[in-house]
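Sequence, please.
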């Protein structure tokens, strides 16, 4: 359940007319009072003799009783309380009780206070109510509203427990504003996949990913098809911007514009500028230029940058960690933008939900995140991956690394008591899990097949390397279906001149493996990246790894689909 305290107003009648009116998109249905400071107040929604002006006069009476010079200009207080879409339908009596609890906890009308502010709660949709109050008590004094937003949040957590509603993580004021019910209903009527606000936020975030200048940022917005309005000072300095979807119009057929700061706190122009305006760690000319490599090379580089970022998240200072988590969001946005069809939906969802994990009250120390921002830039400029061959295999590799980073971010946020951010990171990890399964199926199956066709002596040598390097994990790994993929990887590493035992030791020691469903899969990707082995194993020379003719092992049956390597979590 989400409470939202809106900006204070000066016209009670204007808000009443909105609450009882049809709404901006005809979304208000059966507006009526569910509770008020006086239970005998006539309801303009149900009583044909009651008027909006009558309700306004009753609410404003304490304000009008003051001398004109002492009346507060902004005397209209407005709170909305919204249930989650999956919550059960609450009755009018339930909403009345919730309204009384909210005005009591916020200080509008404390329990037992007969001189409290006047208020009314209007319900015009199944899932939420609006509470309007006037900020002058019956005794002429002002109410004490210290921290009313935080108090309202805490009370909603208790209401969720009392009514068996979805438990929402406590907020910290850094979340993006969610779509209003009017925006959601409009999207449904027009057949949009998501409300315009969310589509714009996603598009703007992708335009920011890896960008290094205002010109590049605005060029990307224009290329994405958005309408752009820039706010320019008399001096000619650019102060801000607004964006709109060309086909999202209001009742006057005009585009509906959203300022960057209303899409998300970190999408205001000043906040975006900070990503590339760091003077201490300025972006070099080499970094500023578009990447000339292909998608596979960009993904390999991204995997390396993500690995270094994981180490920072595990052991770095808070400001550096915050910067790396925010930059990882850019990498995820860029990967989703350039992903192949079979991974695109899950990567987009992962990027969408991880966005919440990229912001907290810990100020990011920009500059240290240059490698990740460069990785995002490389992904964008390397172009879309087709999802086959080396492109597909390196996509699996980078998703594998992103999963570990997002999991590390969830742990870090949890330690800092960032409840919403931790939840968002965990949700993103689940989408990455699904994306990994789609991306890794073919390359891991090929590795599996190559491992099954290794000669028995060669497989035994790889098992010996495993037992020597990680005796505590050896038997578990040997029992996994993914062992064959790891065996093929160790054979490839040996053929390329590497020491398999040393690689295994380093791969295991670099980070925990408790979150892995398949330790062998994780180790295979780590070693292929560390040893700079082709992710697409068709590029490897077959004679170094295949079974000698007549050895008998080539007669092994192909694995059933459910025997193939699983998601490495």
């Amino acid at each position: 359940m989400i409470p939202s305290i809106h900006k204070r107003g000066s016209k009670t009648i204007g808000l009443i007319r909105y609450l009882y009116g049809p709404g901006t998109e005809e979304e208000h249905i059966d507006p009526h009072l569910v509770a008020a400071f006086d239970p005998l107040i006539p309801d303009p929604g149900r009583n044909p003799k009651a008027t909006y002006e009558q309700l306004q006069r009753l609410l404003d009476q304490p304000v009008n009783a003051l001398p004109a010079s002492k009346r507060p200009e902004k005397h209209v207080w407005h709170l909305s309380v919204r249930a989650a879409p999956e919550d059960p339908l609450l009755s009018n009596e339930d909403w009345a009780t919730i309204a009384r609890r909210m005005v009591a906890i916020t200080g509008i009308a404390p329990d037992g206070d007969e001189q409290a502010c006047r208020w009314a709660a209007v319900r015009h949709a199944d899932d939420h109510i609006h509470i309007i109050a006037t900020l002058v008590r019956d005794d002429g004094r002002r109410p004490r509203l210290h921290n009313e937003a935080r108090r309202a949040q805490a009370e909603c957590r208790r209401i969720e427990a009392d009514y068996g509603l979805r438990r929402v993580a406590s907020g910290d004021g850094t979340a993006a504003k969610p779509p209003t019910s009017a925006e959601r209903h409009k999207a449904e009527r027009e057949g949009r996949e998501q409300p315009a606000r969310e589509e714009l936020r996603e598009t703007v975030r992708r335009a920011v990913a890896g960008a290094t200048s205002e010109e590049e940022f605005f060029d990307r917005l224009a290329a994405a098809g958005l309408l752009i309005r820039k706010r320019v000072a008399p001096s000619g300095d650019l102060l801000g911007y607004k964006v709109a979807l060309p086909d999202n119009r209001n009742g006057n057929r005009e585009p509906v514009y959203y300022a960057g700061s209303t899409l998300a706190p970190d999408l205001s122009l000043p906040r975006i500028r900070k990503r590339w305006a760091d003077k201490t760690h300025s972006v070099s000319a080499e970094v500023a230029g578009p990447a000339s490599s292909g998608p596979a090379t960009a993904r390999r580089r991204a995997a390396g940058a993500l690995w270094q970022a994981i180490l920072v998240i595990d052991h770095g200072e808070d400001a550096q960690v915050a910067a790396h988590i925010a930059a990882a969001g850019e990498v995820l946005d860029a990967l989703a933008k350039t992903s192949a069809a079979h991974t695109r939906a899950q990567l987009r969802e992962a990027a969408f939900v991880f966005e919440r994990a990229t912001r907290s009250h810990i100020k990011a120390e920009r500059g240290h995140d240059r490698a990740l921002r460069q990785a995002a830039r490389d992904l964008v400029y390397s172009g879309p991956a087709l999802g086959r061959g080396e492109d597909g295999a390196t996509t699996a590799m980078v998703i594998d690394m992103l999963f570990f980073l997002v999991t590390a971010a969830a742990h870090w946020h949890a330690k800092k008591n960032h409840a919403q951010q931790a939840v968002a990171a965990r949700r993103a990890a689940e989408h990455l899990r699904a994306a990994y399964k789609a991306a890794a199926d073919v390359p891991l199956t090929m590795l599996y097949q190559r491992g099954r066709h290794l000669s028995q002596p060669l497989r035994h040598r790889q098992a010996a390397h495993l037992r020597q390097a990680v005796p505590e994990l050896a038997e578990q790994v040997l029992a996994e279906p993914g062992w064959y993929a790891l065996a093929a990887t160790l054979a490839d590493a040996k053929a390329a001149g590497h020491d398999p035992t040393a690689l295994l030791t380093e791969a295991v020691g670099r980070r925990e493996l408790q979150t892995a469903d398949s330790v062998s899969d994780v180790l295979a990707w780590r070693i292929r990246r560390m040893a700079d082995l082709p992710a697409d194993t068709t590029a490897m020379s077959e004679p170094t790894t295949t079974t000698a003719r007549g050895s008998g092992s080539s007669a092994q049956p192909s694995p059933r689909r459910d025997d193939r390597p699983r998601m490495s979590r």
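Residues 467 and 473 are 8 Å apart (CA to CA).
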